Amino acid sequence: MAIYSVSSGIKSDVTFNVPTDLCCNCGSTTGLSPVPTKLKKTRYMVLAGTEITVTINFPYCPDCVKTAKRGPVGIASKLLMAVLLFVVALTVWSFSSSAITQAVPTGMVLPALIVLSLGVVFGIYSLFKPKGKQTSYYQPVRLKKVRQKFTGGITGYVLAFTNAAYERKFVSANQEAIAKNMVEVRPV
Fold first, then answer.
1. In contact, 61 and 31? CB cutoff 8 Å
2. Using the 8-state DSSP alphabet, how is residue 12 labeled?
3. Residue ranges of domains in the chain
4. pLDDT tens digits along 27-42
């Protein structure tokens, strides 16, 4: 068990225990090593946002170490990539030969390119699956929320775990921090 006072560059007195006897992704108990896991939370405000990055050493087995560096990809990022792909496809379409453009009804081009762009992006991301006993292809620990004072100091973290066994161990090891509202665990 390791006790962490998390540093994020912002004043924080939050401390909690990190269980170190099983992999936080697959639950393995062999070959574990603490790996700095950068958890990010972005708060959006109209056209801008602020990002808080918290680094915590979680235990990973050799097969899951790569997942520590893979931040989860949200729906907004996937949609942005689909929009970029749509713009590229539309540009290619507009510069294609007139024989091709005349063969396809004009009203079908935009819907077809939208469906194609969404299908390609979401299809590619559907290929990224956990391997073996892994519970996530991406980081198995998620920073759902950061509680802050009005002055900016951090008062608590809301975490989520893809591995239910690790989540139970984390909750068991942090009853005091949970009671003090320094840490909260929610479903992914």
1. yes
2. B
3. 2-71+136-185, 75-126
4. 999 999 999 999 988 7
